[in-house]
Amino acid sequence: MSKELCLKLGFPPLTDVATFKSIAHLFTSARKGSRCGLYLLELADGCYYVGQSVEVVRRFAQHCKNHEIVAFAFIRVKPTDLDEVEFNKIRQAEELGLRLRNVIHTTCVDGEADLDLIIPEDQQRKWVTNAKRYFKKDISPRIQFPQSHLDRYAERFRRFERHPQSEIALKLLRTYLINSIVAPVRTEYSFWNVSCMPSSGGTKFPRLFCVSAASMELFVVMADSANPAFLHGFLNVSVDALSYFLTLEEFSELHPEVELSIRDYRDAGDDQITLHAWGADHLERLLRDEFVQIAACVLSQRVMRKRPTFYAQYHCAQLAEKALVNPSSKAAKPVKRRLKPSVAVNAAAWPFPVANQANTRSRH
Q1: Cα(210)–Cα(193) distance, rounded to whole angstroms?
Q2: Cα 141 from chain centroid?
């Protein structure tokens, strides 16, 4: 990395540490806090890693066990500021075009991923741009869950089935899964999960289900405790992919009933936007939008490539099976949109160009 890039990131020039087993010689001061801060690693494959530590000498030694480090830079940061500064530096490094090995706070993961062992990356790209077509062709058998796992959520699933809007909610779930999750049958449980009647939504708007990947929520449907027949929900999508097809102003004209907001899910990095629709009809219309489907699939695929789902133990296999297998819960037919002349929805247009973040955020 050039000296100029280091300075833009706020780091001093990188120090060559290719043959070092320790960097203790760089931290001879006995002053308290002298080893607390942010570090930048250059790896032998040309990738970089930005991290934080209150004891960087020990952290460097830990990294050496798993990575071939060729260069190192460090800045002191107060312990109370580590999270915020790390977050900003990672975003800054992505904007400068650095290939990062970080998982947290980044938009994309670089290199091979566990997901690639289930479905090759080139197939993932094709799936993203035509998920329903590939879902129909996928004849993979569902995994068999132990009876103990099925018993754990049997009562929650029965409660879901008794809900007056369970069939509508199931249709929404199926529409999302087959259009916005890469190879949902093959990736179920390891890379995505669906919790049934979780308590995380509180009592005012109890959740009927929540689809998650890594440590973030992807799609949530809720009821109203005062009016159980009223459903609403939100899904998180890639703002870059959505903006690839139409501006957010154009999107709002097509979906005036949908609220747009920016959240800070750590696994989505800077490429995320939350779409909240009030009412089952509006939510269904949102899920049927072909551009929304692609934008949702882009985000879920990027997140699943980062790491497995954290919430596999909360997965309701009965709900997933009914959504993916039961023919009575057919997904809604997607709303086809006329593409702009310059837009071609195919794997060759991958990855979607990164939108200008400043312009994107100013639209909200």
Answers
A1: 8
A2: 25
Cα distance between residue 352 and residue 118, in whole Å: 23
Burial 180-203 (b: 16+ CB within 10 A, else e): bbbbbbbbbbbbbbbbbbbeebee
Q: How far apart (Å, rounded) are the C-alpha atoms in residues 234 and 247?
A: 20
- 254 in Cβ contact with 267 (< 8 Å): no
Q: How many residues does the chain have?
A: 364
Nearest CA to 17 among 51, 52, 42, 49? 42
Instruction: Give the phi and the psi of residue 203 in degrees, each rounded to 5.
Output: -95, -25
Query: CA-based diameter of the chain, in Å?
Result: 69
Specify burial of residue 350 (Cβ count, 10 A radius: 0-12, 13-18, 19+).
Answer: middle
What are the structure tokens assigned to 121, written together? Answer: 């990356």
Q: Is residue 64 classed as helix, strand or coil in its secondary structure? A: helix
Token representation of residue 133? 């077509």
Q: Indicate if the alpha-carbon torsion angle 107, 108, 109, 111 is positive or negative.
A: negative
The segments of the chain whose pLDDT lies below 50 read 327-329, 338-350, 352-364
Going from the C-alpha of 144 to that of each of 196, 237, 319, the distances in angstroms are 18, 30, 14
Q: In Å, how far are 21, 44, 53, 293 from 63, measured between CA atoms?
A: 10, 13, 12, 38
pTM above threshold 0.70: yes
Distance CA 144, CA 150 (A): 10
Q: Rounded to an integer, what distance in angstroms lies between the CA atom of residue 306 and that of residue 309? A: 10
E strands in the chain: 15-16, 37-43, 48-53, 69-76, 193-196, 207-213, 216-224, 227-237, 258-261, 273-278
113, amino acid identity: A
pLDDT digits (tens, 9 = 90+) for 114-167: 999 999 988 998 898 888 888 888 888 889 999 999 999 999 999 999 999 999
Select from 46, 357, 323, 337 the least CA-distant residue to 211.
Answer: 323
